[in-house]
Design goal:
about 700 residues, alpha+beta, Hypothetical protein af1432, Beta Polymerase, domain 2, Ubiquitin-like (UB roll)
Length: about 700
Amino acid sequence: MEEIKLLINKNFNLEKQDSILLDEILKNFDNVKKEKICDILKNLIKFRLDLDSILAYLTYELNYELPNDVDGDILKIYDGLMSNFTITEGMNKQEQADILRKMFIAMSSDVRVIVIKLYIMLFEISNYILPLTKEQHQNLINVREIYAPLAERLGLNSLKSNLEDCCLKLLNPKTYDNLAKSVMLQKDDNEKQIKITTGKLQEILNELNLKNAIIMSRQKHFSSIYKKIKSKGLSLANIYDLIAVRVVVDTVEQCYAVLGKIHGIYKPMEGRFKDYIASPKPNGYQSLHTTIIAENNRPLEIQIRTFEMHKLSEFGVFAHWLYKEKKNKLSELDKKISWLREMMETSKDLSGEEFIETLKTNLCEGQIYVQTPKGKVLEFVEGATVLDFAYSIHTEIGNSCVGAKINGNIKPLSTKMKNGDVVEIITSQNSKGPSKDWLKIVKTSSAKSKINSYFKHELKEENIKLGINMLEQAIKAKNLSPSKILIDKYLNLDQFKYVFNTKEELFASIGYGSVPVNNIANKLCQLYAQDHKDEVSLFSQNHNSSLTIKKNKDGVLVDGDNGMLIRYAGCCTPVFGEEIKGYISRGRGVTIHRYDCPNLKYLEKERLVDAVWDSNLETKTTSVLFKVISAKSDNFLMKLTQDLLNANYRILGIDSKENQSDKVVTTVKLEVKKQDDIAKIINIIKYIKCVEDVYRVGK
């Protein structure tokens, strides 16, 4: 306890009330946690977090109950720390998304919360011992995929690297050990070279009379080495920034002056100079990087930056306000984490799975900057399209978007933007509005949310019907009767952890996909089982939960409901007679796939339903694609069309091209009525003389 008091008193000027509060908190001191508390406190102090953060952390760690009159910032940080950010094994995507949303809410309130949480995570995972438990393994995956990228996005590069090093060491121990051994073999040689280089750099600083300048060196983190080896296919010998020497000076002019002197005594490697001062990285990082050939004839990276740039590299979003008066802190920080608040606002209509995937994309991808025609600069995740741009301007602009001009040239909606592009959106009053395919085009959470919102509200009645059907199917799968369970007694909205104003909202949320159907079905069945224990055990085990797809003069019926929308999957184009499976899609009714469609394994299992054709189905045709590989022949297309027409098959389209192997690849679209036609068509085409192979596309 005394060690902690000395540590805090040494680094902070405590006022009387702070000192009293510290003493009260430390009365709960737990000697078991001493190592953890001291380690994390040293990191938080080194990071220059303020006293409020330190007191809030100690309060959280030592389970002290704060009095009502304590400083508001301490309370706010403490409340954020009390939020559970742990994703455990067995959680579904919705539960994981709820945890992550909770974390972002805490961050939006005060970003110091996540800095403290990240240092707590670092301590905990650094103390894991192999072999890992399942929960530890899952936690490391989450750190690697979510929390380390979050630290990088906040500009906390050192913290990010330490988190990633721990993950590599524990998840890939053999790789980590091999890297460590290889690097250690070069240690003596590297240390000798650093000593020689720093000596020459000091002579340059003396010559330029840069008395405040400092020189430091660093070893590249193993996780960074591993990522570079893996992503670029390099060997360890070809990684030139394995070690780096850093020169920190007062001004930008001094950076370039030092660079000139270095290139005067060392030969720079061609193509290895990067000016991040003139062209900063998207996260604001600035520095000069040059790789020179050192005395040992090996490459050595030298970084040159100002003290202000060094602060940004070390403290990320905190750099601009850690050293300023308190009144400026919040406004500066708000600008830096605006993307976080935007994500919270725009993720409300995303399902759990969509939110997590969009979050990972936003955290792991780089950023680009593009302009409107009037010169306004907008920031996007790398890979964002002009459709993302349109929705960032206004929802209606996005909904009516038909194309765009990039640097004056007309481009389609799917065009990915590049750094520095000038983008102008083209809209039309005759636009049909958003398509579900647009969700595959956009990358930002904002655009996805607005597109989803369109379908969620425009197709509310359809979503309600889908939700009821999904809930009925989930209840039937438990061998219970939906008619006995879906009654007001059990559909009491107050008992669900989700917020619904009406039963229709509950059903629509299930149909749309924002609420997992099994969560609701499990709750309802549990309530019913409590009242009907005997009946539940006697319920028929052979309840048929198949959907029957029928055709009548009014259209398609599902279980007798002609309000249900049926569509046939384009990926596998099911033909009458083939085994099929239904998928209750968001806002688009039931999509019918072939039973062996490879895409089914990527769909949510709880939305899959059994489906069968009605034997009395009226004539139904399906357009099916066939691909034909053939040798070059002048009369092949004529022979192909004649044989198909003679067999009474309607041709909907033909496309023929030569490939790099001098073969002809022909795609033909045909109207097919039943399963037997597939084999007949393949036989007709196969017996044309020059044909080498023929197959159904999507098989």
